């Protein structure tokens, strides 16, 4: 095994640069938020809520533009059966950011929440918040594991170093600067990483395009040269699958803590919206070199390159087309710069996910569900420990399981099917309650898992209309096997069923308890009758007694006069800006006070 010294040096320089920026950001902002009396734990989670347009735009873009995004886009453009028509991530995620900015950023930021799970716990209670934490955590951990796994494969292609070593070193660097500086370190390193990716990939494209082995990509887009045209097409039978996947990216890209962490760290609700739109534009711009590299891969006579006569798609290496093009079609110094850029991209996504998972655990599980009297110092330590634990878990999965992509597909589907409809309910639908939320959770999970997951060899037990059986080579064993393929848009249908289930069961429970059809003593979730119980953390009655968060059974306190919001879900600086009228109109649980 040959180790390319230049490649190692290039990667070492990139990693060192990112580490230095991460530590500098932590040092620069170590006293941030102290003047306003903000808790240190909150500063780690949402960075003192003073992140401006420049850093904010970069960090929001870098959240999506990671290793999976640039490698995956190139892979789909390159694959003969798919092509550009199936490279949905750039447009899907860009639209996801636009929809998030238009409808979700403003209510979440103006109410001053600290994590995505806050509104769920506020309206559905602590236990339901804990249940919703499970798919959110799985999504973040499996996402980190999938991109770390991609990084290991990428590095081993070009530098010929041990995959495990490269994954462990990358993960350790990301964990270290996240531990030291929290969101500030993550945000500032994102700026560096995004610039590196942009320069690294754009430097490589002209060299690859002008390589003598590469045909004109405008010709190969529409004509078959070495493989079917890279423009791609959507077959009549695949239309619903395409729509289902597109909705999954566009709507399922919203309910992620990595996204809301950026929204909630913006200095105002309007800034949060602008950041989302900037990032949408950034996602499209950053996808261009990936699309071109995929097209170059599809237009190359591999026999004329150092790669060999057999094309990557025939060697089952289509997922690594981007590093392969960098290595075999560009001069060495360019390919190493490009590789450093790719590895930087991966770290930019891994650090965000690890910080998001630990933020949700420390605040919504540890503090609000178990230890409401926990000191700020204690929460900070819980966060540090969980950053290390979740980072370690993601690294372990990247090294050990071969099904990490399958786990990521399934968990991202569960985020779409379970968390997205509940987020709509909790922000925009008045009167939904914990009974509806539990029913929606079960509906969504049952309908999605019932559809099966071929990648995990999980057979379906619900056969949706239009299903077919196909023979495929299993990615792990290399054996041919029969796989059930669902042609029905069952993920989006599951999401809609989950949403309607929440609304229907909530109103049914409300009617049955309030009309006396079912005795009040059976309201065991305290969701309808005992609205001001210890389980539902209603922001108008949640007040601080010393360090303990207790509940007052008095009439609702006017938000501006209460310490409530500062103690539980809001920050002091949002109180002055909000009028009581706005609060009454915008709060989804205002129906609780009116009844």
UniProtKB/TrEMBL annotation:
GO molecular function annotation: choline transmembrane transporter activity; symporter activity
Broad class of where this protein is predominantly found: membrane
Keyword Glycoprotein among record annotations: yes
Regions that span the bilayer: 7-27, 85-105, 131-159, 165-184, 191-209, 239-259, 271-296, 333-358, 379-400, 406-428, 435-451
Annotated GO biological process: acetylcholine biosynthetic process; sodium ion transport
Catalytic activity field: choline(out) + n Na(+)(out) = choline(in) + n Na(+)(in)
Membrane topology: Multi-pass membrane protein
Chain segments carrying region Disordered: 576-595
Keyword annotations from UniProtKB, A to Z: Glycoprotein, Ion transport, Membrane, Neurotransmitter biosynthesis, Sodium, Sodium transport, Symport, Transmembrane, Transmembrane helix, Transport
GO CC terms, sorted: presynaptic membrane
Compartments reported by the entry: Presynaptic cell membrane
Domain of life: Eukaryota
Pfam annotation, one family: SSF
Subunit structure: Homooligomerizes at cell surface. Interacts with SEC14L1; may regulate SLC5A7.
Recorded family membership: Belongs to the sodium:solute symporter (SSF) (TC 2.A.21) family.
Task performed by this protein: High-affinity Na(+)-coupled choline transmembrane symporter. Functions as an electrogenic, voltage-dependent transporter with variable charge/choline stoichiometry. Choline uptake and choline-induced current is also Cl(-)-dependent where Cl(-) is likely a regulatory ion rather than cotransported ion. Plays a critical role in acetylcholine (ACh) synthesis by taking up the substrate choline from the synaptic cleft into the presynaptic nerve terminals after neurotransmitter release.
Protein name: High affinity choline transporter 1
Taxonomic source organism: Pagothenia borchgrevinki
Organism ancestry: Eukaryota, Metazoa, Chordata, Craniata, Vertebrata
């Amino acid at each position: 095994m040959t180790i390319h010294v230049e490649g190692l040096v290039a990667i070492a320089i990139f990693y060192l640069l990112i580490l230095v920026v991460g530590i500098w950001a932590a040092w620069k902002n170590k006293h941030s938020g102290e003047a306003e009396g903000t808790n240190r734990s909150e500063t780690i989670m949402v960075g003192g809520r003073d992140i401006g347009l420049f850093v904010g735009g970069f960090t929001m873009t870098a959240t999506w533009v990671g290793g999976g995004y640039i490698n995956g886009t190139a892979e789909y453009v390159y694959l003969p059966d798919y092509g550009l028509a199936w490279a949905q991530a750039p447009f899907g995620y860009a639209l996801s950011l636009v929809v998030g900015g238009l409808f979700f950023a403003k209510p979440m930021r103006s109410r001053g929440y600290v994590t995505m799970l806050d509104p769920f716990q506020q309206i559905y209670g602590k236990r339901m918040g804990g249940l919703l934490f499970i798919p959110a955590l799985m999504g973040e951990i499996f996402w980190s594991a999938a991109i770390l796994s991609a990084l290991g494969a990428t590095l081993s292609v070009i530098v010929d170093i041990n995959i495990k070593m490269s994954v462990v070193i990358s993960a350790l660097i990301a964990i270290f600067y996240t531990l030291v500086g929290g969101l500030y370190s993550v945000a500032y390193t994102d700026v560096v990483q995004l610039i590196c990716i942009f320069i690294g990939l754009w430097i490589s494209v002209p060299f690859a395009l002008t390589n003598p082995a590469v045909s004109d990509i405008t010709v190969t887009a529409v004509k078959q040269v070495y493989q079917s045209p890279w423009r791609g097409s959507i077959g009549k039978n695949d239309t619903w699958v395409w729509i289902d996947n597109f909705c999954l990216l566009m709507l399922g890209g919203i309910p992620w803590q990595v996204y809301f962490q950026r929204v909630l760290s913006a200095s105002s609700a309007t800034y949060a919206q602008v950041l989302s739109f900037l990032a949408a534009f950034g996602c499209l711009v950053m996808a261009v070199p990936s699309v071109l590299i995929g097209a170059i891969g599809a237009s190359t006579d591999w026999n004329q390159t150092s790669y060999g006569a057999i094309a990557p798609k025939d060697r089952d290496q289509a997922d690594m087309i981007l590093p392969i093009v960098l290595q075999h079609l560009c001069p060495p110094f360019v390919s190493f710069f490009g590789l450093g850029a790719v590895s930087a991209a991966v770290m930019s996504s891994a650090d965000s996910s690890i910080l998001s998972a630990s933020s949700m655990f420390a605040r919504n599980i540890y503090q609000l569900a178990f230890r409401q009297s926990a000191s700020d110092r204690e929460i900070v330590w819980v966060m540090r420990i969980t950053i290390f634990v979740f980072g370690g878990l993601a690294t372990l999965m990247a090294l050990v399981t071969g099904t990490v992509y399958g786990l990521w597909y399934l968990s991202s589907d569960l985020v779409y099917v379970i968390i997205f409809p509940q987020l709509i309910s909790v922000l925009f639908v008045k009167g939904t309650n914990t009974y509806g939320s539990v029913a929606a959770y079960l509906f969504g999970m049952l309908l999605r898992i019932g559809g099966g997951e071929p990648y995990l060899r999980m057979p379906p037990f619900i056969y949706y209309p239009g299903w077919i059986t196909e023979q495929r080579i299993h990615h792990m064993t290399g054996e041919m096997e029969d796989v059930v393929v669902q042609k029905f848009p069952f993920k989006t249908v599951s999401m809609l069923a989950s949403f309607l289930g929440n609304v229907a069961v909530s109103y049914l429970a409300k009617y049955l308890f309030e009309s006396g059809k079912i005795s009040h003593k059976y309201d065991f979730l305290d969701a309808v009758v005992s609205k001001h119980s210890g389980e539902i953390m209603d922001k108008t009655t949640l007040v601080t007694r010393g360090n303990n968060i207790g509940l007052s059974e008095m009439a609702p306190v006017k938000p501006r006069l209460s310490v409530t919001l500062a103690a539980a879900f809001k920050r002091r600086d949002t109180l002055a800006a909000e009028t009581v009228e706005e609060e009454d109109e915008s709060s989804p649980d205002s129906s609780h006070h009116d009844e």
